[in-house]
């Protein structure tokens, strides 16, 4: 693809308004996105630094699917308070999602180099999403947790399990943030 077409598309994409539910970049991933976006070889199309989510357990996305989203560490009291306040919602899942980035790359050589750097820095679930007109690379880390936590007003796990989940989720978020920083340093 001609470099000028890639740069025109990059300029158009980066000038658009943020369509994420938060309406802005996560603080923990801003410096990596900025470093990616100053390069003439690639640019971000979406990103997330990792998050803890409480969501309805359903197959299809809907406007009210996510009940609460945190992009920071949480406390046990915060989690318990939320569960108590949302007990009438039916089956609710607890989910920890790792950092994820979608990056448009100017050619396959650039894509391959970036993918190798990402893999060596902990983004093990990464690959090319699209290789047509736009080459889009998805960088995804491995830190995950997901399980049903509340059903019809009843918390499905005991207090020690909730304590462990909060501890593990916070540790996994931190590990993801460390991977983001490591990747930023090698790009």
Walkthrough of the structure:
Helix content is 39%, strand content 27%. With 187 residues, the chain is of the alpha+beta class. The chain has a single domain, classed as SSo0622-like fold, CATH 3.30.1960. It has a 5-stranded antiparallel sheet, covered by helices on one side. A 4-stranded antiparallel sheet has the order 1-5-7-6, with helices on both faces. A hairpin with a 2-residue loop joins strand 8 and strand 9 (154-155). The chain starts with a helix and ends with a helix. The model has no long low-confidence stretch (mean pLDDT 91).
Index terms:
single chain, SSo0622-like fold, four-stranded antiparallel β-sheet, 5 helices, five-stranded antiparallel β-sheet, 9 strands, alpha+beta, 187 residues, 39% helix
Summarize the entry for a quick read.
The chain has about 190 residues and is of the alpha+beta class.
């Amino acid at each position: 693809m001609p470099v000028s077409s890639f740069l025109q598309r990059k300029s158009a994409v980066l000038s658009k308004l943020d369509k994420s539910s938060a309406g802005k970049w996560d603080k923990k991933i801003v410096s990596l996105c900025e470093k990616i976006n100053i390069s003439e070889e690639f640019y971000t199309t979406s990103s997330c630094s990792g998050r803890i989510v409480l969501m309805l357990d359903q197959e299809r996305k809907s406007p009210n699917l996510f009940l609460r989203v945190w992009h920071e560490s949480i406390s046990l009291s915060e989690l318990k308070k939320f569960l108590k306040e949302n007990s009438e919602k039916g089956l609710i899942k607890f989910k920890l999602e790792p950092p994820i980035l979608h990056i448009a790359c100017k050619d396959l050589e650039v894509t391959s180099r970036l993918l190798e750097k990402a893999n060596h820095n902990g983004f093990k679930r990464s690959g090319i999403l699209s290789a047509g007109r736009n080459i889009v690379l998805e960088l995804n880390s491995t830190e995950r947790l997901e399980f049903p936590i509340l059903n019809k007003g009843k918390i499905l796990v005991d207090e020690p399990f909730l304590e462990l989940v909060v501890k593990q989720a916070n540790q996994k978020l931190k590990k993801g943030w460390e991977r983001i920083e490591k990747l930023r340093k090698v790009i």
